[in-house]
Amino acid sequence: MTVHNIRVGESKRGDASDGTLAESVGGRLSRVDGPAKITGAARYAVEQQLEGLAHAVLVESTIASGKVRAIDAATAEASPGVLRVLTPDTIISLRTASDWFGTPPPDKPYCPLARDITFCGQHVAAVVAETFEQAVAAAALVKVSYDETPSIVDLDDGKAGDGIPIDAMTKEWGDAPAAFAAAPVRICAAYNTPREYQAPMEPHGLIARWEGEHLTVWEPSQWLDGMARTYAEWFAVPFGNVRLVSPYIGGGFGSKALALSHGAVAARAAKMLGRPVKLVMTRPQTFTGYGGRAATRQTVTIGTDREGVIQSIVHRGVNETSVDGMWVEPLGSVTSIMYATPNFSSKQNVVRVNSVVPGAMRAPGENPSAFGIESAIDELAYEIGIDPLEIRLKNYAEQDPHTRKAWSTRQLREAFAAGAERFGWARRSPKPRSMRDGNQLIGWGVAAGTYPVRRAYGEAVVRILADGSVEVESSSIDMGQGTYTILAQTAAETVGVRADDVVVKLGDSRFARAGVAGGSRLAGVMTGAVSKAATSALDQLVGLAISDPRSPFHALQANTLVVANGRIGSPRGDGPDVSIAELLKSVGRDRIEATGDTMPANSTAEDRYKNYTTIAMALPHTEGDYSRYSWCAHFIEVRVDEDFGTVRVSRVVSALDSGRLYNPKLAESQWKGGIIMGIGQALLEEGIMDRRHGRIVNNNLADYLVPTNADIPDIEVISVGIPDPHSSALGGKGVGELGIVGVAPAIANAVFHATGKRVRDLPITLEKLI
Ligand code: MCN
Ligand code: MOS
């Protein structure tokens, strides 16, 4: 595999206004993997050049429900270059794997090609050929006939019903219905979000190669250890026999955390043919190869006293899931914590539809949840006749209303203040349709967002090498969020070297294990693990320098030494001063190596395996005395064309509390990325279903619209966080998912202010406004 080894040039040096060195934690170091990506030196999973590579192409069902009656593969098999056509009858089955909690699977075979069709786009066959073009041509010749049965295509389908209650999602305190009935001011509204897709730039795909009973998979992955476990279970080989390699990833946004059926097809094909097999999804296939964000329906009722102080919130939610899989999008997650209320009730159902199982997409749960409650609170502000910012402050939750625990840190009031000040909120004219510029109606909206601090245990290896450079190894990943960079900064600061002298190696499951890069947890987990490993490497280095008779510091009788800029000296600067390389040479060592593991001391090997390959051991964000969340407030200006109903976002100011930032430059970029995705969600993104066949019509990036540069105004982000010692070792909270939460309701609220029309169905398209 390729590991980037980039020297950090002068252009990356610090520019932090507070004087923080770019290379330390908290500095604005540019992405250390940037040059490799820009120059094309970064090699992505399916770009590996392997001897004897064969190519697999999937054939997908064209009906949403029913059975495969027959597959006629004769023509395809006879077509040039074809090595094998795999069907449910000819592929060798796998074993069922456990889920991401590690729940023991049923002891039954798993066939990644379907006979029983539960959604349109399901894999029913695969053609393996010498070249990709031959495989594509032959795949078009595979004839599949079906016995079709009626399907339920989406939540609006009359046959969908109320669905299945998910009791674990119920949250209740006080008597919310009674308090609502007694409240003098009441609002009740329904809010909907459609199926949305992660649409990462790099489509899903992999290369699988077997060497005896050992499998190597080059596949973009947010979770190497978890996916390696699934492959190992599928093929009933030991976990250690599977190696996942994923040094660079072209975005995931939640879609690349799990091994999926196309991976099983490719790995099985490789085993059956005794050749490495590459399988890359087409862009249309990515719309059914894994789930996007589930469509959701919510009703939010709020009862207040005459001044707008909340007495009751009643929330009901529904999300779609698939016929044979379960996905719960936690719709009450923000509803239950954003505002203080003495009475609360939230319940959720899921409805099975003929679709691929939906999955995690940037801030699953919190994102649609915030659309409901942050729209509803805005409606309430107009009902009472007070400012939308004021109603939020009036109902500010001084502690977690659900667990009644203290917030670890909650700089939300500060976020409202800083954002309002910078945006100029005080100049807002309260009435809808009261601000305009020619035929453009101007609207200003505000909404808050939050995301829990998910914590977990981590592990890393730090080596100090003979040339004085430092190497960090971890099987965690960087899909663009900045892991390479912040871990270089953490190791540089802890050991006392320059960041240019640190090489970070990620994305190989042979490295020190790591859990999922999901739920905005990786940065906190891995900076903790690397600082622990680096501290122990430093201790070894200093220990050697003090105790080894060959060390120039031996005679000094100091009990500690200082390491900075790659040099070792005495704390008072009165003794020798040598480079790390010189010291290692003098004591005859070619390296120092330390593994840092933040797991409890009494952890067993089984605990460690479970910790890295399942999500069962994550630490609850409400563990102990505190409730831990990151917070944000978005202030957004829209301009709506009065005649055409087109909406443009013209200004965004967001203030965010992610605790201490490991690298403000990268955190700001993450926040902006989330906000941009939120603008797409508010105005553009929607999977459109062909109701006849249950097919996603706009399954490509020309028709499934995501924002382009022209859709995005200047976005200003302000950090209002303070170090949070209860959330992570270095005081940071989550960044990656926070930014998107609250953007869509802020835009919907701005659109109401501009037009007087309340749009409760995303996306806000022009036909909903005229
Ligand atoms: N960071 C920081 N200070 C903190 C926390 C984080 O400076 N206190 C910065 C670091 O650069 C860090 C990044 O923010 O690398 C993200 O950290 P974190 O919030 O811990 O999130 P993860 O590393 O776990 O990344 C996953 C997260 C998720 S869950 C999704 S979804 C998402 C996201 O990150 N998908 C992304 N950001 C993405 N960014 C890109 N470019 N592509 C994706 O697919
Ligand atoms: Mo993020 S949706 O948790 O990968």
UniProtKB/TrEMBL annotation:
Give the source's domain of life in one word: Bacteria
- Compositional bias (Basic and acidic residues) at which positions? 7-16
Q: Which UniProt keywords apply?
A: Molybdenum, Oxidoreductase
**Keyword set includes Metal-binding:** no
Spell out the molecular function terms from Gene Ontology: iron ion binding; oxidoreductase activity
Q: Where is this region: Disordered?
A: 1-22
* InterPro entries listed in its UniProt record: Ald_Oxase/Xan_DH_a/b, Ald_Oxase/Xan_DH_a/b_sf, Ald_Oxase/xanthine_DH-like, AldOxase/xan_DH_MoCoBD1, AldOxase/xan_DH_MoCoBD2, AldOxase/xan_DH_Mopterin-bd_sf
**Record has Mitochondrion as a keyword:** no
The Aldehyde oxidase/xanthine dehydrogenase a/b hammerhead domain, residue ranges: 39-150
What Gene3D superfamilies does the record point to?
A: Aldehyde oxidase/xanthine dehydrogenase, a/b hammerhead (3.90.1170.50), Aldehyde oxidase/xanthine dehydrogenase, molybdopterin binding domain (3.30.365.10)
The name this protein carries in UniProt is: Xanthine dehydrogenase family protein molybdopterin-binding subunit
